[in-house]
Amino acid sequence: MNKKLITAIICLLAATFCHAQDNTTNPDSIATESDSLRWEKMLEGVTVKAQRQLIKTEIDRIGYDVQADEESKTDNILDMLKKVPFVSVDAQENIRVKGSSQYKIYRNGHYDPNLSKNAKELFRSMPASMVKRIEVITDPGAKEDAEGVNAILNIVMMENQAIKGLTGTVSTRATTKGSGNINASLTTQIGKVITSVDYGAQRMSESVTKHEDIAEDNFIDSGNTIRSESEGSNPGYFHFADISASYDIDSLNLLSASFGGYFYDMDVKGSNTYISTDPSDNPIYSYGRTYNLPSYAHQSWNGRADYEHRTRRKGETLTLSYMLAFTRQRTVQKNQFYELVNAPFDYTQNEENTLERFTEHTFQLDWTRPLWEGHTLSTGLKYIERRNSSHTLQDFNDEPKFTSYDNKFNHNTHIAAAYADYMYTHGKWSARAGLRYEHSYMSAHYPDGNGEDFGRHINDWVPQASMKYQFNDRQSLKLTYSTSISRPGIGYLNPAVIINPNAVQSGNPSLKSAHSQSVSLNYLLTGERITLQIAPSFDFWNGGIGRVVNAREDVRYLTYGNIERMRRFSTEGYIQWKPFGKTTVIANATLMYDHLENRNAGLSQHGWSAYFFASASQQLPWRLRLSANAWGNLGNQPNNVYSYSRPYTIYGIFLQRSFLDENRLTVSLRAISPFNKTNRQITITNHGDYTGFDKQIMNIRRFEIAVSFRFGKLKASVKKAGRSIENSDVVGGIQKGN
């Protein structure tokens, strides 16, 4: 500790002690004004510094302070997520929360269907400077627990006191591979109305999306092998837009609304070669294929409105909410086959045309009331009407043995729910318990008569509970039990049969919802120079939705079923260490042991794996900051009962500098894997009717420049109702393809 500070503290304590003694024994010896001046002189030059912590925990969530991270000025949200506890980002920029890809994303506490469906594209395009905090809601509570996941990613946008004016941020990023993006955010206030508009556009070049794939399948029954090599790319444009507004009717009533979405258009194209050989490596057949998707377009939009009424009782609120979400996706793929040598088919071209629609209406009522000191009750009602439809066409233009395939399928779900959530706080203890009841009716309809219509009623009870003990200001321990439900989306349900020479794929309209349960413990230590979190947990489910893969006559048949049994032991670890005043080291990792089973088929897969992110940054003179990052996967990660993924590592070096008053202009130079041109992700298939491997090779090396400029002085944000709609239960819905 600083010697001057120690001396000053001792002197102040001595003066206080002497002053107290003199007041009782010797009034004439009270400290004089010259004494005070002497203490002030001794304190001169003493500086007390407080380090702003990046991590904060509450009973139901853990938050990462984005604005306390200097790299947020030019990083995008995807970069920030790598540093957030319980979150990992892999080489293909797929996001996992608590080790799972089954999660939902909120914006300012509200479910955002757009972010949930295309997270990596949107987060890659959105600058982190727009975000105040990223939260992982580890214990959603009875209000959301049945809605599909035991973790929620909440993106909290910037907010401050409302002052009339105008402010905004413009940022851009460009790479040596020809890709780039531009973003603009604008906030203004007129009277009681605060409005925020965000827009972003991203160009994905052919070079940055180029990929190669080498695969081999060895079929158990025949002993034959199929080897394939492919290459392709998917250049295109991605756009997102969002407008939000809030109106303070008076001190007790708030009206807020928003509308936004995204759309993209890509030129997907590529080629494959296939060679089949017998057990003696003699050729059986071979052929080549070129493919392109001239119409690969996707759009997704959602709007919501919230009315919040606060009573005269502090903390009591009544909220009425409505949300509309809809998605439209059309996919047209044309395949041309060439150099056919003894191929097991006669056609030389085919075409797949799929149109999928998703529409959802949600109505919700929430009431929160403090009962007495330390006791709060929340209750609510919710109704969801969810409509899915698909129309699939497949033409085999040159094959007289095949007729054109035409399938129409509609799947509707109606969900009525009620919940009660109780929170208790007393001294160092806090606890939360809740129960949710859901009644759902799922129905399937075949407009063209290709199948038999059916429907079913399902009743679900979903409990949850958590307890937290705060040892002191720096240490806390939390125990949680939670349950969740996942319902199949149109992608898993669609019975349309897509036929390719080596694979036949279809959905399963008879899928049921799946339940999962989790027990976790979370310890957090927040010190002056170190922040440490350790969170072991146990997750399990039976009857989970999983892939069903069979092989007959060297052709793979893929569908889905409620067949997966999973047991997962995991430990989330996070550490932030400041060994020196201007040096920061961060490590974020998830260690998992997964055991997956399909008891119907007698198959299982298990193994240890870990996702990790490590960063070291140093503040340099002249407002420069240098940082080095590394992230990836260790061990063999089970994907399903048939396969697992091999480890990989990616690294990057960043240099950042700020300019102008209040650091309004920030420029960053980045090098991603400068000494490795490609990254390889290998999947090993070791169980089932065939074995083999799939090696994906991606161009990972790139150099970037990012620029961000902030203008205006308005410190305002669109207000949001404290409670709103969150739907998080759908898996396998309409998603962007990779």
Short description:
With 738 residues, this protein is mostly beta strands. The protein contains 7 helices and 39 strands.
What would you note in describing this structure?
With 738 residues, the protein is mostly beta strands. Helices cover 8% and strands 63% of the residues. It has a 22-stranded antiparallel β-barrel. It has a 6-stranded mixed β-sheet with strand order 1-2-7-8-5-6. A hairpin with a 4-residue loop joins strand 32 and strand 33. The protein is globular and about 75 Å long. Residues 1-51 and 731-738 have low confidence and may be disordered.
Key phrases:
738 residues, 8% helix, disordered N terminus, 2 domains, 22-stranded antiparallel barrel, mainly beta, six-stranded mixed β-sheet, Maltoporin, Chain A
User: Count of DSSP E strands?
Assistant: 39
Give the count of structural domains: 2
- The rounded Rg comes to 29 Å
Amount of beta strand? over 45%
Mean pLDDT: 82
Sheet with most strands: 22 strands, antiparallel, barrel
Q: Total number of helical segments?
A: 7
Topology:
Blueprint: H1 3-25, H2 33-43, E1 55-57, E2 62-65, H3 77-81, E3 87-89, E4 95-97, E5 104-107, E6 110-111, H4 113-117, H5 119-125, E7 131-137, E8 152-157, E9 165-175, E10 180-190, E11 193-204, H6 206-209, E12 211-219, E13 225-233, E14 236-250, E15 253-277, E16 283-310, E17 317-341, E18 349-372, E19 375-396, E20 405-426, E21 429-445, E22 454-470, E23 475-488, H7 490-493, E24 498-499, E25 503-505, E26 514-526, E27 530-552, E28 555-580, E29 583-598, E30 603-620, E31 624-635, E32 637-638, E33 643-645, E34 648-659, E35 665-672, E36 678-685, E37 690-699, E38 702-712, E39 730-731
Parallel strand pairs: 5-8, 23-39, 25-28
Antiparallel strand pairs: 1-2, 2-7, 3-4, 5-6, 7-8, 9-10, 9-38, 10-11, 11-14, 12-13, 12-37, 13-15, 14-15, 15-16, 16-17, 17-18, 18-19, 19-20, 20-21, 21-22, 22-23, 23-26, 24-25, 26-27, 27-28, 28-29, 29-30, 30-31, 31-34, 32-33, 33-36, 34-35, 35-38, 36-37
